[in-house]
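Methods — Computational structure assignment.
A single polypeptide chain was analysed. Its primary sequence is given first, followed by the predicted tertiary structure written as structure tokens.
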Amino acid sequence: MTASPLSLPRLREEAAGCRACHLWKNATQTVFGEGPAHAQVMLVGEQPGDKEDLAGKPFVGPAGQMLDRALKEAGIDRGKVYVTNAVKHFKFVPRGKIRLHQKPNTPEIRACRQWYERELATVRPTLVVAMGATAAQSVFGRITPINKNRGRLIETNDGHKALVTVHPSYLLRLPEADARAREYERFVDDLKIAATQLTHDKAA
């Protein structure tokens, strides 16, 4: 990895002026990661949503509430993990007063990967949890199928341990209550793997 570590406040300040892709033009602001400077676990999502774009903080909307609940059930204190997104600006299309989320494309993910790399170099977590396909593509540097890779620890090319799971917004989109409950439990089980890793590192 070529990224050199800086303090998180410095990185946040630099990222606020990022013009590496066009997404900054319509977004309210850069939404940088948050959490302890040397957290053992880094959670990586896709991109900020509408609520995050307005607040300037990651995972404060409905998906964030789902994540908070799942972390608690898995035995992980959100205050002790670093939470960020693969893409730092909100990509959307306007529909009247509503801003509809759009999935970031590969050039946008690549343009923003420098910030993920620099966060990684600064925080130096024991484990990176990639939530969703966009996050997995950023973490591994290539398109990485979720179902084929989820639920097990994988070593990345830069030597970090990573865990692949779904994005909490996926759970919110499931129309059937039974499927939503089943997938939520799978999501919690994935996060429990991260919790076990934390416990193992603490005991070591």
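Note: The domain at 8-203 is CATH 3.40.470.10 (Uracil-DNA Glycosylase, subunit E).
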